[in-house]
Write a structure and sequence with these properties.
Layout: H1 7-22, E1 24-32, E2 38-44, H2 48-54, H3 62-68, E3 74-76, E4 98-104, E5 121-130, H4 138-201, H5 206-233, H6 239-242, H7 244-258, E6 262-268, H8 275-295, E7 300-307, E8 313-319, H9 326-331, H10 338-347, E9 351-356, E10 362-368
Parallel strand pairs: 6-7
Antiparallel strand pairs: 1-2, 1-5, 3-4, 4-5, 7-8, 8-10, 9-10
Length: 371
């Protein structure tokens, strides 16, 4: 659990480990939100089809809610007989034996005086139905208590890591915004001066006036490109809420409206990936799109995302632009973000390839292994 730094992946590892360790048929882990529901709810032992049939994330009610206000375990021979039991959706499997264990804030010191609310419950591990029948034992409860203590440390570390990354991204967005502001301001200032010069030359030197107006058009186009970059670069990432496919589709729609090129996106059999891999794929797609739209002169750009049999994914960004010689670009010291894209791929165990030559367009492909 401690090897992973993405909260979603840590939750998944905790849930799978608890189910395997105690020999349970079903396991779940719920992280509460502040609105009577669960910010995240991870299950193990239920297929994707079953989970979709069950419906929306559960609300905080019944036994699930009771566990959020406990700092110790709840063990039941039959959860359906618990006073707090409130039923479940029609497609939900029938559960019997039950064991729930809160994951308590790792920074809480039991020797210190507790405030009136007690220690923070970061989440709750829920287990149901022992394989082979029977109920959960004292030994099971002790094993789950130890696992929950490790889970608290892993989850706290993952939250701190993600918070640190959010702060880093916020700082990067601020830097980009500052750079873009300077660049756009300079272009608009030049555009204003050039337009004034053209206005003065209209009567006495029409030829020079036309040249100045052509320069106005060029500067306006560059300023528009910079402003489009603001839309793409500073738009908050929606990966955690929407997933990679939806986020890519949304960004492609924005770019398609903002540029003259025809930009299309398609996804096929894409499973959820570890968060770091999804973030890397998104950034590589953005960089490849930026290159295609700013440098290639492409009339069409296609982005595809496809799942692989090994539970990974392949991202492909192709354009019909003028293409280039990658070797010549490297020798000239112009990288077009290629080094950054390769570094992002390598950092998540992926592989990036680039296929381009003058007059043939460009294909950027990145493959990641998945969970």
């Amino acid at each position: 659990m401690s090897r992973h730094l993405e909260v979603r992946e840590v939750l998944r590892r905790i849930t799978a480990s608890a189910r395997r360790l105690l020999g349970a048929e079903y396991a779940a882990l719920g992280v509460p939100d502040d609105h009577g529901g669960f910010a995240q709810f991870v299950v193990d032992g239920v297929t994707d089809e079953q989970w979709r049939a069950i419906g929306p994330l559960p609300r905080q009610h019944g036994v699930l809610a009771a566990m959020l206000h406990e700092t110790g375990p709840i063990r039941l021979d039959d959860v359906r007989r618990a006073p707090a039991f409130g039923g479940w959706p029609e497609a939900h499997p029938e559960l019997g034996a039950f064991l729930g264990m809160p994951i308590v804030d790792a920074d809480h010191d039991e020797d210190e005086d507790e405030d009136e609310d007690g220690p923070e419950v970061l989440g709750v591990i829920y287990l149901a139905d022992k394989r082979g029948g029977g109920g959960f034992t004292d030994h099971d409860e002790e094993l789950l208590r130890i696992l929950a203590a490790h889970a608290a440390l892993a989850l706290t570390n993952a939250r701190l890591y993600e918070r640190s990354r959010e702060l880093t991204l916020a700082g990067e967005r601020a830097r980009i915004a500052h750079d873009l502001h300077d660049a756009v301001s300079q272009k608009l200032f030049s555009l204003r001066l050039t337009a004034k010069a053209a206005a003065k030359l209209v009567d006495r030197d029409p030829a020079r006036a036309r040249a100045e107006l052509a320069e106005v058009a060029r500067l306006a186009a560059e300023a528009a490109d910079e402003l489009r970059a603001v839309v793409v670069e500073l738009r908050p990432a929606a990966l955690e809420e929407d997933g990679l496919s939806a986020t890519l589709a949304s960004q492609v729609q924005v770019l398609d409206r903002a540029h003259n090129a025809d930009i299309a996106f398609a996804a096929d059999r894409v499973r959820a990936l570890p968060q770091a891999q999804e973030a890397a794929l998104l950034r590589v797609a953005q960089e490849a799109l930026h290159n295609a739209l700013r440098h290639s002169g492409a009339g069409r750009v296609t982005v595809t995302l496809a799942g692989t049999p090994e539970r990974g994914a392949v991202l492909r960004v192709s354009d019909n632009g003028r293409g280039f010689d990658p070797g010549a670009v490297r020798r000239a010291g112009r990288h077009l973000g290629l080094a950054s894209m390769r570094d992002r791929a390598a950092a998540v165990g992926g592989r990036l390839t680039l296929d381009s030559s003058p007059g043939t367009g460009t294909i950027v492909e990145m493959e990641v292994p998945g969970a």
